[in-house]
Amino acid sequence: MKKVYLDSAATTQMRDEVITRITEVMREFYGNPSSTHSFGRSAKSLIENARKTVAKYLNVKASEIVFTSGGTEADNLALNSAVRDLGVQRIITTRIEHHAVLNTVQQLEEKFNIEVVYLDLDECGNADLDQLESVLKSSKKKTLVSLMHINNEVGNKLDIKRAGKICKENNALFHSDMVQSVGHYELDLSEIPVDFTAVSAHKFHGPKGVGFAFIRKNSGLKPLIFGGEQERGHRAGTESVHNIVGLEEAFKLAYDNLAEEKNYVASLKEHFVDRLKTEIPGVKFNGTCEDTKKSTYTLVNVCLPVPQDKALMLLFQLDLKGIACSKGSACQSGSDKGSHVLSAFLPEEDLKKPSIRFSFSKFNTKEELDYVVEVLKDFIEQD
Q1: How far apart are alpha carbons 140 and 87 in whole angstroms?
Q2: Which of 124, 167, 289, 331 is catalytic?
Q3: Angstrom distance (rounded) from CA 295 to CA 180
Q4: CATH for 258-381?
Q5: Helix or strand holding residue 356 (H, E)
Q6: Contact status, residue 190 vs residue 217, Cβ threshold 8 Å
Q7: Cystine design at 33: which of 7, 43, 94, 310 (Cβ 3.0–4.6 Å)?
Q8: Could you tell me the sign of the dihedral formed by the alpha carbons of 140, 144, 150, 151, in that order?
Q9: What are the start and end residues of each CATH 3.90.1150.10 domain in the chain?
Q10: Any catalytic annotation for residue 325?
Q11: What is the DSSP string of 278-308?
Q12: How many C-beta atoms lie closer than 10 Å to residue 195's C-beta?
């Protein structure tokens, strides 16, 4: 059976070079990086070199990079400490953030009785930054703004420089989940007024279980996990040396090959969108994903002209044909919740139809995409 992986927004295939490097570190650098003997010092040196590598590409200080278990932990670290330690009394966010943010904000609201403001969204799911400015000006309450850079379901891109500028002008802290953008876009964090970010290695062909938080110097953020003094007191626990080095290798390869691979993946998306428009009349593109200037080049989220009773079988049929992708609404898998992202801005009529997220990487081909379009077309045309 043909196998086509189009779920890279969920996780990416690891590069061979990353697997080789991880294996080498596991075999040869097994000392505890907190130990003072040569084995420990060698492991510690690898971690600090990785920290410097990441900092160099993002144009920040190495001391501002804290390695974590992934994006979820990095989000939790920023949000929890901002309320618990920095005196934040209000969080401004949207209803289309990743659940690592939304569920954390909900817990903080219940535990600390903070005010939570959800920004309005337009018909494409874009946050109202004029409203952000208005809300910030309405009160001097200590505020953290949390807006993701690129939405993981529909690919919408936030004007992050404008959002950061608004926050800075109104003395608000700014946190951005950058899980879908780091490794895919050139980002100079010295020019973007963001205080905290979250990053995950497995979104750019690195290993799972490792990521990092960018924490602006002198922010005052305190640890989420207590214990030893690892990560300069920001994150206790023996570091996963092989994973951190794997992150570094994937990070370097992503940015050293960025221009070429970005152009290639963008051409895949353009080809897929064109084929869908040609072969499937009535197809819709959710959010701004059809527009490569307003959305990431790595994914599309499509609403298909399929009746509700038939929609339940769509994802199952795609899986039977060897196609891996993600659902975007409740009717495809029997879930009674559906996509919180699509539910926040799609009209009821479109929510009844199946929406599917297809996400691409350097490992995909146009031939694979043509196959997917044919499978979709056949399914839709079946009685």
Answers
A1: 12
A2: 331
A3: 11
A4: 3.90.1150.10
A5: strand 355-359
A6: no
A7: 43
A8: negative
A9: 258-381
A10: no
A11: HHSTT-EE-TTTT-TTTB-TTEEEEE----H
A12: 23
Report yes or no: 15 and 205 within 8 Å, Cβ to Cβ: yes
- Enumerate long-range contacts of 273-282, CB under 8 Å, 24 or more apart: 273/300, 275/369, 275/370, 275/373, 276/300, 276/302, 276/373, 276/376, 279/373, 279/374, 279/376, 279/377, 280/304, 280/305, 280/373, 280/376, 280/377, 280/380, 281/305
What is the second-level CATH architecture of the domain 16-256?
A: 3-Layer(aba) Sandwich (3.40)
Per-residue pLDDT of 110-156, as tens digits, reads 999 999 999 999 999 999 999 999 999 999 999 999 999 999 999 99
Looking up tokens 């499937």 gives: 280
Rounded Cα gap, residues 328 and 311, in angstroms: 11
Find all residues with CB under 8 Å of 54, minimum gap 6, and list them: 62, 65, 212, 247, 248, 251
The angle formed by the CA atoms of residues 134, 135 and 138, to the nearest 5 degrees, is 85
Of 91, 329, 296, residue with least CA distance to 196 = 91
CA distance 225 to 235: 6
Q: Hey, is 174 helix, strand or coil?
A: strand
- What one-letter code names the amino acid at 50? A
Would you state the structure tokens that stand for residue 335, as one six-digit string? 């879930």
The CA distance from 373 to 363, in Å, is 18
Q: Which amino acid is at 286?
A: N
Strands (E), 164-255: 173-177, 196-200, 211-215
Residue 324 CA: distances (Å) to CA of 153, 155, 237, 378: 15, 18, 35, 17
Taking the C-alpha atoms of residue 116 and residue 94, their distance in angstroms, rounded to an integer, is: 10
Mean pLDDT (the chain) is: 95
Report residue 66's pLDDT band, with 50, 70 and 90 as the boundaries: very high
Residue 369 has pLDDT above 80, yes or no: yes
Q: Which part of the chain has CATH 3.40.640.10?
A: 16-256
- The Cα–Cα gap between 87 and 332 comes to 43
